[in-house]
UniProtKB/TrEMBL annotation:
It holds the Pfam family Glyco_hydro_77. The keyword Cell cycle does not apply. Its EC number is 2.4.1.25. It is an enzyme of class 2 (transferase). SUPFAM superfamilies: (Trans)glycosidases (SSF51445). This is 4-alpha-glucanotransferase. It comes from Saccharothrix longispora.
């Protein structure tokens, strides 16, 4: 790669090389850099084009980031967020302000300390109860929060992403590929808690109750659940005063109304419907989908209130996916903020030697800066409207994302860098206003500066028992929980990893071997799993934890963690061997479809669950 192309790439935050999973330098092909620059509207197709781009005048930054107390130089006038003005130079209040064509983001230095607590990592769809229709719902979330606090002493509840998917079948199962990160998924509504249901005559309630698909399916049938709930909600809608929505909600509801007719991907719609300016959705259907969002907001607020009323120290934390579906509501409504023809993923590593393509379009860093990070502000604010905290999936994406140009495999991509200071400033402004905690998922190959910045800003990183090792020492020995970093949210596993019981039974090896996911020896994988198990059993001995019941022992070990938040999953506590999601698969494995082995009431009655909860609660009191 010639120096001029490299300089142009650097000027636009496009990497020309990176450090791979083996900590070796990997150079990016020049044509890949040219293709990625094109997605940023930078022509680098010829040497002459590169020189023209380098010679083009540089625009001053459109977004300025300050820490509370810092002075913005003048002269000039700032229009404050609250409508007032301030003459420069001046220190500005926390918030989003404007001076000329620039946005000024002023953030607190760091977030408030997080209280020590234990709690659940919940896959909500899996938590079925006698009152839910085929899958867990928002009322189950409220029940779990209340009973976990009152009966088990839990202080935090992390729930899988519940952002909106397209209102079509087949229903998108993955919670990490929503149509919108700004709105909620009506699939999780509790029909019986809708005010119109409570006020309906008994005959209509009976008709609606008869639609319940039941909880006796071995796997969760999303299509059956949505078909039943959509019909029930349609019947109730007939008894509700119809109002036309306004603002951002109207845009989302218009997408939903059009998706019902033309399908879930706007890129495949008739030409006039692809543009919000010329689209012609049915106003009645627009009002219906806006009403569903009002119901979601009410039921999510009920769940949060249940956590508060029961005395949870933290409350309900919601998970934010790294992106959205490329043909979904967000890219339809605010498409100028996205690099629509690019997908993000990960470069090759030991787990995936061909790299990963997540089929999610990235934000354009230049457009975010031009818009004062308003699209990102909307996303964070929408989650925190009904949450006490936010977990940022793949938090390293605030620093850089692996962009894959159109038509290329994941191996032929490169990193594009973002202004992490601005993204973190938005998180701090929104979280401080909501009195919320922020957790970054920094697992895997992540630059040290990511974790360091999280802690410096009062945010938590992630600690998983399987991965807490001294990676710089020979043999990578396990780190005792008492030496883990305090500013972490700790757990035994995650939804993408084997459960505690599954790990002990090497279920993750068996399943991946059956699916042909190993390039090397399967026997070698079993041997590696056995070594890891032996290392953990040895750590139990060093920590004085009895090893007669290893699932309980792992939780007793976790209870010793210095981490301010310690979480387990119902799957881990119940001894479930199947993990919720197996990366690298779609229909080959029942991802996001496995219900808990007991109903919600049974969870609280299970002796093993109560032992686990008692151990974790006792550990938080140390």
């Amino acid at each position: 790669m010639d120096d001029e192309l490299a300089a142009l790439a650097e000027a636009h935050g496009v990497a020309t090389y990176y450090e791979d999973a083996g900590q070796r330098r990997a150079d990016v092909d020049a044509d890949v850099v040219v293709a990625v620059l094109a997605q940023l509207d930078v022509d680098a197709s010829t040497p002459e084009a590169v020189r023209r781009a380098l010679d083009a005048p540089k625009r001053p930054p459109r977004t300025v980031v300050l820490t509370e107390g810092e002075v913005l130089d003048g002269p000039g006038t700032v229009r404050l967020e609250d409508g007032g003005t301030r003459e420069l130079p001046a220190a500005l209040p926390v918030g989003y302000h404007r001076t000329g064509d620039r946005t000024v983001i002023v953030a607190p230095a760091r977030l408030d300390p997080v209280p020590r607590a234990w709690g659940w990592m919940l896959q909500l769809y899996a938590a079925r109860s006698t009152g839910s229709w085929g899958m867990g719902d928002f009322a189950d979330l409220a029940t779990l929060a209340r009973r976990s606090a009152e009966e088990l002493g839990a202080g935090v509840l992390l729930v899988n992403p519940v952002q909106a998917v397209s209102p079509t079948t087949p229903v998108e199962r993955s919670p990490y590929s929503p149509a919108s990160r700004r709105y909620a998924n009506p699939l999780y509504l509790r029909v019986a808690d809708v005010p119109a249901y409570r006020d309906a005559p008994s005959e209509l309630r009976a008709e609606i109750d008869a639609l319940n698909p039941g909880n006796d399916t071995e796997l969760i049938d999303y299509d059956a659940v949505w078909t039943a709930k959509a019909r029930a909600l349609e019947l109730l809608w007939q008894r509700v005063e119809h109002r036309a929505p306004e603002g951002e909600l109207e845009g989302f509801a218009r997408f939903c109304a059009l998706a019902e007719v033309h399908g879930p991907d706007w890129r495949e719609w008739p030409e006039e419907q692809r543009d919000p300016a010329t689209a012609t959705p049915d106003p009645e259907r627009v009002a219906f989908h806006a009403w569903l969002q009002e119901l979601c907001e009410r039921q999510l607020d009920d769940a949060r209130r249940a956590a508060h009323d029961a005395g949870m120290a933290v409350g309900v934390v919601h998970d934010l996916p790294v992106g959205v579906h490329p043909g979904g509501a967000d890219t339809w409504a605010v498409r100028d903020a996205f690099a629509a023809d690019v997908t993000v993923g990960a470069p090759p590593d030991a787990f995936s030697q061909l790299g990963q393509d997540w089929n999610l379009p990235p934000w354009r860093p230049d457009r975010l800066a031009e818009q004062g990070y308003e699209p990102f502000r909307q996303v964070v604010r929408s989650v925190l409207r009904h949450a006490d905290g936010i977990r940022i999936d793949h938090v390293a994406g605030l620093w850089r994302l692996w962009w894959i140009p159109p038509g290329e495999p994941p191996t032929r991509g490169t990193y594009v860098h973002y202004d992490a200071d601005a993204m973190l400033a938005v998180l701090k402004v929104e979280a401080s206003r909501a009195n919320a905690v922020v957790v970054g998922e920094d697992l895997g190959t992540v630059e040290p500066k990511v974790t360091e910045a999280l802690h410096r800003n009062g945010m938590l990183s992630s600690a998983v028992l399987w991965f807490q090792r001294e990676w710089e020492l020979p043999g990578h020995p396990l780190i005792p929980p008492g030496k883990w970093t305090a500013s972490t949210m700790a757990s035994i596993s995650t939804h993408d990893l084997p459960t505690a019981a599954g790990f002990l039974a090497a279920e993750h090896v068996r399943v991946r071997a059956e699916l042909g996911q190993f390039e090397g020896s399967v026997d070698g994988e079993y041997e590696a799993a056995a070594r890891e198990r032996a290392e953990l059993v040895e750590l139990l001995g060093q920590e004085g934890v009895p090893a007669d019941d290893l699932v309980a022992a792992f939780h007793a070990l976790l209870a010793k963690a210095r981490s301010v938040l310690v979480l387990t999953s119902p799957q881990d506590a119940l001894g479930e061997t199947r993990q919720p999601n197996l990366p690298g698969t779609t229909d080959q494995y029942p991802n996001w479809r496995i219900p808990l082995p007991v109903a919600l009431d049974g969870l609280f009655e299970d002796p093993g669950v109560r032992r686990v909860a008692a151990a974790l609660a006792a550990g938080r009191g140390r």
